[in-house]
Queue: 2 jobs
Job 1
Amino acid sequence: MSRTRVSLVFITFITLLLISLVLSLGMGAVAIPPAQVLAVLFHHTDPSLSGATVAIVWDLRLARTLLALVIGAGLAASGSAYQAIFRNPLADPYIIGASGGAALGATLAIILNINAVMPAAFAGALLAVAIVYLIAQAGGQVSAFNLVLAGAALSTLLSAAVSLLMFLGDRDLHEMFAWLLGGLSGRSWPQMDITAPLVILGIALLWGMSRPLDALTFGEETAQSLGLNLFWARTLLVTAATLTTAAAVASAGIIGFVGLLAPHIARHLVGGAHARQTPMSALVGGLLLVLADDLARTMMAPLELPVGVLTALLGAPFFLWLLKRGEPWPR
Amino acid sequence: MATISTETLTLAYNGHDVLREVDLRARQGEILALVGPNGVGKTTLLRALARQMRPRHGAVMVDGQDAWQLSVREAARQVGLVPQQADGDWPLSVEEVVALGRMAHRGWFLPLSRQDKHVIRKTLSQTELYDLRNRPVTTLSGGERQRMLIARALVQEPRILLLDEPTANLDLRYQGMVLTLVQKLTHEQLLSVIMSIHDLNLAALYADRMMLLAEGRILAEGSVDEVLTEGNLLQAYGVPVVVARHPVYNVPLVAPALPVVEKERQE
């Protein structure tokens, strides 16, 4: 993989992302042309712009679009890390139960009216990942299928628990259900302010640990013979990936398959070295979710689809295809 | 003296002893070949030497110090391992894989130094991989892949090198190529090498010393001539063999003497 090609791919995707951000800010009930979006973004004190346009872009759309970007990037970066940690091309925050655990934690906090949604989501996600890992590891190596089966079973259990909580809690069922399906509807700066710093921290940590991630793709014994302390590497990596996932889920509910799709695309584009793969996954994931959210908002306007439904429609067939293609990593 | 040795090492799987009271010592600049029937514990012994399993009794010593007292990184700077199993299909380039060996020196975060890059480049040349350095590992042949795994271990700059069946799944040409490389490196860099190997004739050609494992213990140990005798091999493998001499290198040449149906001669 030549340096020039890698740089070109990165520049292309950053450009695509910027364009999609501007287009996305112009989309909605009131269409705003791209030129005007740019004017609002860079000269919002310009008196020739109408106050309504400025308000729509800054107060209504910008936070949501940025949130889509941040959440997509976070899910993709953590999916990329989970794939290396579990040595499993099918791993994704949703598949391995991290998202489900975060959702259960967050739901509990919301229903019990505890003002700690984020820590609860993080604790739930960490617990779910630990359980799935222990079950899948029974009998030595973590096999791809064991991991998927354990993740699926646990996810079912977790979502049943969430449904039960919603049923028992006296919250508006429809609203909670929409949250669970994964959506950005009505999300704005308060969610952005909590989620963005955590996701950025998580991605930075994962990026910093590119070398351990690369080593882990060879399996634990080889990684150890290369001088990697497995206990610390696994602990820190799982914590960082799970923190990122929990931060995303706490704001937008369960959005599946972005974390599966994006790393595969990234690996195809820039190779598997995590120093490049992690940022590329984040870029692709961010772009995917911004585009998916545009679709979710406009496809059946004025009705908004939960974006998680769209990513599942897009991602699940891909997952099945990967499964059918067989295990690229033997054992 | 950079050596690895064991003292009354007993290794067990699920409570069953696999190997008992093994005393072994690698010497600098020498290849010690571990031979013996399938399932006798050659890989188990290598895993114990590489600190991948804890001994039930006894100890693994690196330079006279208990290997388990070393940190993971210290151990990786002393002992390099060339594992047997084919590594995964992760799309890294040859150079990226080999560079991972520097983690033992550089840790998790620090970027590679000029010195690291020098070692990597030198090793790639030594193992004749320099021209392949940008190739994805997924496109390598068996022999190229084995050379890459050796290069990755060498980049750790270990003084002890462990190889698990380095010629498994290689054809005649690559077997010779890989073992010649190991031999050259052993002598040039004064490495202490221990390798498990199935093929007795290849072992006879390349090993300086040999250890024959059978029935959970060391059956014979010493020079190639001392170990590869008809009596030892009959006892270890349970089949009769004939030991002749290699026509070119004058080392033992082992051929099975199993009962075979005489083939029809073509007149």
Job 2
Amino acid sequence: MERSTAIKVSGLGKRYTIGKQKDASLRSTLSGVFKSAAAKGDDFWAIKDIDFEIKRGDVVGIIGKNGAGKSTLLKVLSQITKPTTGRIEIHGRVASLLEVGTGFHPELTGRENIYLNGTILGMTRMEVKAKFDDIVEFSGVAKFIDTPVKHYSSGMYVRLAFSVAAHLEPEILIIDEVLAVGDAEFQKKCLGKMSDVAAEGRTVLFVSHNMSAIQSFCSKGLLIENGELVYFGKLEKALSTYAFGDEFKNNLNLAEHTRSKGNSPSFKFSALKVSGNYENASFPSQFPIELTISFIITEPIFEMALGFSITDHEDRTLIECRSFRQLTELNYPKPGEFSIAVTFTPNLNSGNYSLNLGAISKQGELDYIKSAYVIEISHEKTGDSWYNQDLGQLVVDHKWKLT
Amino acid sequence: MPKTTDSIERKLRMSKITIIDAEHRKFFPSLSEIRRYKDLFFTLAWRDFRVRYAQTTIGFLWAFIQPIVTLIILTLVFGRFAKVDTGPIPHALFTTCGLITWTYFAFVMTNSGKSIIESQGMIKKIYFPRLIIPLSKAVVGLIDLSVTVLILIVLMFYYGITPESTVWLAPIFLIIGMIAALGVGIWLSALTIRFRDFQHIIPFIVQLGMFITPVAYPIEKAAEQMPQWAMSIYYLNPMAGVVQGFRWSVFGGEPPGNMMYISFATILVIFVTSLMYFKRVEDEIADFV
């Protein structure tokens, strides 16, 4: 059965005027009345031309760098500010949680703040009353419920605030980076609560920089870069596109590739060739991959090693191999152009991985290229059904038998 | 689990669709939406009242001290020193009656005027019809209003004066006063978002407003000596008609003249335009505060 639409967004854009605060002073507005051509400030589109459709029950993780427009998108979706262009269609009651404890008043007691915050979040007093005991129990601050919250520790404050929010029952829940608060135990509790919400078939939009939180309960990913929608769809694809960014394209001419470190004048990678015709396909997990790496040496180097590493989208190094023991003829290279080949078997589970190249001497890094290539690997055992999955990052040969 | 999904499905079918369209603009705030948020409206009013005297030693007594001291000073200055003739009504009583509507007006206007700026933290983080913030101040002000009414009743017993039969009109004048206060307050709250200058205008209006409003002096005497056009300007002050009308409804005497309707017309214009202006800036409030 086709699920119904929860949120439909088309042509959405939000413009801010930046630079001099032109609009914000009385004098400039008054003078603007008399001067027909009042100088305009610079326009800045925080989000632009965004289209997507979220189905009921989707749990969508919104990802992107700081300043990409995630928060603006949430603000527009939760009606806090009006879009400059476009249209949004929302089916159902929305609760947005861009902050925990919105409207909390320090002079009021915990009990009073539950009512205050609950109604601010869109509950009626009756609804708050019905859930009051659950909220207090979840927060774990029952003992201090009649104490003004200004006497609370920051942990207690956040726990109480989140508890109120956790008991909202909207059809659509919009959450911004609010799980980054509280201690580890409470965070776990919150994540559990969030998973419950998702499991109940509610629609959730969730912004976070915590990739494992997103991975643990989102099913879809929405990637925004510079205010534009880059990708909306499967979570894994969104995460890897985010992690590898522009370098997702095969960048085989390395001469112009940006170097984050190791910009030595004596050594430079010039080209990379990856074996097989896997341009648009993924590498099988346990098949060898051959890399052909070209580089130029302009001055003699004393003790050099080449290396490559494979990192995942959280920048964790899974594999790192160096040439020093095997490629002894290049341990003391003289100037010239070289080309070497290396073969390896990744043994990685399905996903996108970043291949990084490096050259190092005793004096330090000579050259380093992050994400010279993105390797997409598919592991045959990764299926959709629960019994057909090998989990974890690495693939290991293993045998089961009844003894 | 399927049960929950079912109930969500059912709720969804009943729930209505929200459309946010950049092209679509309304002239007036939606009354039905404000009604949907009535719990928040009362909760905000209740919060204001709860925290108002927090951490003060005498607490609610302040609600009595302020009007009583104002009353004593006004009676001294206008009644004793300036010897203003208030006819058969003792000056203290005359002034108390004027103060009821004026202090309510001043309170509601001041608090709703600065309310949006004060709630900016909330406005940036959550949606609700913004108008309920300034509107809720009209409820908060009712507490102070009851205090001044109580003082009036006590003084009337003391002086042995009974209200006229027209006293049933008093609540109507109060409501007109409330609309005036909200109209000015909503205008100021919306203007302050973009032009902080208006924050400094509010205390000014309160301070000077009392002198151009017949709170502690009767305007009827002055009206006889002033030209018609000057009085028309005087009555552009929305509270001139309200204060005078309210006092007449309690003590009787000469009924207020047609000039009163100038005040009421001003109130109507201010209130209607305030709602329109507020609606115009409402969508962008979160961008400016």
